Amino acid sequence: MTDRDDKAAKGQEEVTARDRLRYQWMLDSVSKFRLFFAGLVFAMLSFSVQFSVVSANRAVKGCQLAAWLLLLATGVLSLRDAGGLVAKNTENVFDGLTSGVRRIMWGCFLVALILLMSARILADAR
């Protein structure tokens, strides 16, 4: 009976170790995606500023400026989500942004993309 109990305990330990490894892999993947997204946002911001649409149309300029500000806000939030810009470095675990703030971040990103595309379309329409 003890042999059966030892095998069951060993099997349970293996399952627990496997679950821990899988959980750590998932956390690493989330962390990598968050860092990738922060880099993507700042790369888009730098390219959209560097290759801005030159136009005398105020709507084009307004769309670009609003998009840049939204991309900047998205970048700051994405850095915060990735673990940067933390007020306390003594926390054991950092969970990132709350779901509501994360939705705002993604909404700002989407609106910024739409504004950048709108600026290009408005400039070509004239």
Task: Explain what you see.
- This protein has one domain.
- The longest helix is centred in the first third of the chain and has 49 residues.
- Helices cover 80% and strands 0% of the residues.
- Helix 1 packs antiparallel against helix 2 and helix 2 packs antiparallel against helix 3.
- The protein is mainly alpha-helical.
- The model has no long low-confidence stretch (mean pLDDT 85).
Produce a short descriptive summary.
This protein is mainly α and 126 residues long. The chain is 80% helix and 0% strand.
What is the rounded Rg?
A: 23 Å
Question: How many H/I helical runs?
Answer: 3
Shape, principal axes of CA atoms: rod-shaped
Indicate how many domains the architecture comprises.
1
Poorly predicted segments? none
Write down the secondary-structure element order.
HHH
* Mean pLDDT score: 85
Strand-helix topology:
Elements: H1 2-50, H2 58-82, H3 99-125
